[in-house]
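Worked example 3 (structure in, sequence out).
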């Protein structure tokens, strides 16, 4: 019997496995595919996710595998104004571009180093919930565990087996995502990886985004206005991609090979509860949304960082079981907000905008050029402005803690910081130098958010009563 089964070896599942193993939990990852798909796919790591990865020493190996690109901000609905995160107190103000396969390699290497077993070629066919646990049938195995976390994507088998509804809105169009190689290119094809507005081109009802990967390789995203969601399971044909390239980039742009290809839609859905008995849902298994602004992978990894330390604390008897209720309470609103901002971008990014939408796009583009409006959208799209509604009177509580040495958090536990020498020595706080904008003392959760804070005269009863206090030892 294992303690936690994670279904799905994508970024969300592997990040969660790392977090659980770091907390001393016995984890088994079950994956239906026989091997990792080497696809660029969701290859944008937003600033807040970079901060979380840095807390565990995972950012540097991803930076080493990232694509060379100009330092360009993120975007809202592909409008031609970079979002500026430099004023948001972060060491990582620009999105990091890296193929999803490389992200998974880094996470799987860390997970296996921590003792996680990854069982591939093992499709889940049954999920049962006897008292006090779960039983999973995967391939020819029946596996018992205390908990299961479904990280198996938008078509989640676990969700379907449990009959969990996935309410929301169907897609209005489909598009193709592929890794391609070109034998020749026209002058219209982008030469370098820059802001997304420089990588996308439209001709009549056809549109394509080409991301240069080097060596004649590109990440291709494209389609035609009028494609509807029911066609998304239709196989992608070589000629389909070749024709889109010819129409949008000219006859000189010749497709040589398609390394892999799939379809996606702009459907928007979210389950009502992120927990069903002893089963939790994370990543696309819990929520899907239009692929605007590079949000999907990031939202899932942030789900993992929220759930991992909580599940480990409960399993190790260091926190009461009701701590697990805070996963849904915190992450469901976070997911709903991402669905909100991605749906809003449909108005500007639809493949066939109305005349009114075109005019609105011009007005909104001018608004984003205003520093305050740009900063607001930059905080939303980067994840840097996200906060949780946590108990406590100090304004920092529930917000990310910036400017502190990230290596303090590599053990995956809370850290009590004393920045002004205001805490009694017997509390075992870590004494650090003062940081502009931070209070005198902070209890920081394993995911980098403030659980308690004080400027002066700290309320020690509130500190000791905080749920994270028992996890310090």
């Amino acid at each position: 019997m294992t303690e936690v089964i994670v279904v799905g070896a994508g970024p969300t599942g592997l990040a969660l496995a790392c977090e659980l193993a770091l907390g001393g939990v016995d984890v088994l990852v079950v994956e239906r595919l026989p091997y990792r798909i080497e696809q660029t796919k969701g290859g944008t790591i937003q600033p807040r996710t970079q901060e979380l990865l840095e807390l565990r020493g995972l950012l540097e190996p991803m930076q080493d595998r990232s694509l060379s690109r100009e330092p360009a901000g993120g975007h809202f609905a592909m409008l031609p104004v970079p979002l500026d995160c430099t004023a948001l107190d972060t060491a990582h103000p620009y999105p990091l571009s890296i193929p999803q396969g490389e992200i998974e390699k880094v996470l799987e290497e860390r997970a296996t180093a921590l003792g996680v077993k990854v069982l591939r070629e093992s499709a889940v066919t049954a999920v049962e919930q006897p008292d006090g646990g779960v039983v999973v049938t995967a391939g020819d195995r029946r596996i018992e565990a205390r908990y299961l976390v479904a990280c198996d994507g938008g078509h989640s088998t676990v969700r379907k087996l449990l009959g969990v509804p996935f309410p929301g809105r169907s897609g209005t169009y489909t598009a193709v995502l592929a890794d391609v190689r070109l034998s020749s290119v026209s002058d219209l094809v982008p030469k370098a990886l820059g802001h997304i507005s420089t990588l996308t081109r439209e001709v009549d009802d056809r549109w394509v985004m080409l991301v240069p990967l080097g060596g004649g390789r590109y990440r291709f995203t494209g389609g035609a206005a009028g494609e509807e969601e029911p066609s998304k399971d239709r196989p992608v044909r070589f000629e389909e991609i070749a024709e889109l390239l010819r129409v949008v980039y000219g006859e000189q742009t010749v497709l040589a090979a398609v390394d892999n290809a799939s379809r996606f839609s702009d459907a928007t859905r979210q389950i009502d509860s992120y927990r069903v008995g002893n089963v939790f849902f994370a990543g696309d298994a819990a929520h899907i949304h239009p692929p605007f602004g590079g949000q999907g992978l990031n939202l899932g990894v942030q789900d993992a960082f929220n759930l991992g330390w909580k599940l480990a604390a409960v399993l190790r008897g260091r926190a009461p079981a009701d701590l697990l209720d805070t996963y849904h309470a915190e992450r469901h609103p976070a997911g709903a907000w991402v669905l909100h901002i991605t749906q809003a971008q449909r108005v500007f990014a639809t493949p066939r905008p109305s005349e009114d939408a075109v005019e609105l796009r011009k007005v909104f583009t001018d608004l984003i050029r205003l520093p305050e409006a740009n900063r607001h959208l930059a905080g939303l799209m980067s994840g840097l402005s996200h906060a949780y509604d946590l108990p406590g009177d100090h304004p920092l509580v529930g917000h990310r803690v910036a400017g502190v040495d990230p290596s303090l958090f590599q053990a995956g536990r809370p850290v009590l910081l004393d920045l002004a020498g205001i805490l009694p020595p017997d509390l075992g706080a870590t004494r650090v130098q003062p940081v502009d904008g931070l209070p005198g003392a902070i209890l920081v959760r394993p995911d980098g958010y403030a659980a308690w804070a004080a400027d002066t005269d700290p309320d020690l009863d509130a500190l000791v009563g905080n749920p994270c206090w028992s996890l310090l030892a």
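Notes: The mean pLDDT is 94. The radius of gyration is 23 Å.
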